[in-house]
Specification:
18 helices, Phosphoribosyl-aminoimidazole Synthetase, Chain A, domain 2, alpha+beta, six-stranded mixed beta sheet, disordered C terminus
Amino acid sequence: MVFFFKTSSGAVIAVEADHSFAPEESEKLLWLFGNATQMPETSLAGWFVGPRKEMITPWSTNAVEITQNMGLSGISRIEEFFPVASGDATYDKMLQRLYDGIDGDVFRIDKRPDPIVYIDDIEAYNRQEGLALSPDEVEYLQQLSAKIGRPLTDSEVFGFSQVNSEHCRHKIFNGVFIIDGVEQESSLFKLIKKTSEYNPNKLVSAYKDNVAFIEGPVVEQFAPVNPETADYFAVRDIKTVISLKAETHNFPTTVEPFNGAATGTGGEIRDRLGGGKASLPIAGTAVYMTSYPRTEAGREWEENAIPPRPWLYQTPEEILIKASNGASDFGNKFGQPLICGSLLTFEHAENGKKYAYDKVIMLAGGVGFATMRDAIKGTPVPGEKVVVLGGDNYRIGMGGGAVSSVETGEYANAIELNAVQRANPEMQKRVSNVIRALAESENNPIVSIHDHGAGGHLNALSELVEATGGKIEMDALPIGDPTLSAKEIVGNESQERMGMVIEEKDIERVRRIADRERSPMYVVGETTTASFLSRPTVCVP
């Protein structure tokens, strides 16, 4: 059942609970909502702008947890709705929807999890789902299907498209370059690597991890003696490495700039957290490349450029404002300052062709540090545990890795809508606190660590167990949305999650720290004795 509360600002807060509130429970909620009043109505007439039904907001997640800490039970969702004058009101179609009245069904989703689908025509499925598979990749999957003697499932095809996407594998950078009919000696990626090959200087690790490390100074570490409980802080000298990272977040920022840029910043922070056996973030940067914003008259370079297009999602001006706000918002809430950045706008017409950054480029970067001891990832061995820290699975970022490989608007809007992401910096901070506690201890139990980004569990957990093979129990993965299919559970890109390999003997120690930091922790699988040529196994219930 859903109860409505009216705030002093006129907004309506909808609370979903499994029981009617006792007077003392209502009193707590009224206080929590800033001296709101509980409305007796079970349905409200008029127009409202609120969150999409299928996407629980981070605000709701944190609000529900606050109620739990206040001793209130049975509350599953809390969302805020804003009254508007009419059905012509403007709103962010990517994150919100317009409601003609709200009632007890405001959170109801008439959807059951989709069944597992066996794909007979991979090329048709590729076009239908917007997986951005190349003809060579389609042929490879067809041959694989024939080899194993059965059609591939939707999870398998989808997973391949994400893990093998341009975003994850940089196929263009690593591809063969032919200029004027002549095959070039080096790929673009090899050219980038040449600098460090000729002048490694103080380089410790590059091009093989989530971040690059260079030698750093000896510093004094001020950290608790025992992070599992309240304890004294101690000072000890540690030899450090400096972490450097750049992350692209182009398509999500084009579709929904605030959360796109926010999760871009959050993603590069997680990349630094996942460097080596754990490293710590210090400061971030942001770079934006868009078409001309045309914010004022008199700019000859804009007026003489190609005419403005009917923007598919957001105007360049909206992107620049919302993206900047999103990146700063995440950094501020997480506790990492955004210290600098840059902006490039570009449009050009030549020889009958038009060029412009209509699909925005968002670069998030940053610096951090780790102990020299943890600069290189360990090698998992059979029998170790696979652990996930962080939030639940939602229908978020489905296909974001693959969609980043195609032109904006190439596929149906519904497909691109599913690539919208959800930023929850508070949850990421809790996860970060656990990792920091382990990294600052004299005995770091982390064997290997990987952030969850493009491809979700499919990519992160596969890379964690690549050296040995592994078994992942899908039933152990946390579910925030009960309507998710098997494909959506293993492939969603819900943010603020980190995967780790640790020895079984260290599980309870890590759990005590996670409990202290209020970071969800799940043991979801283990490494096996399978060859690295074997696929990781996902057990579907």
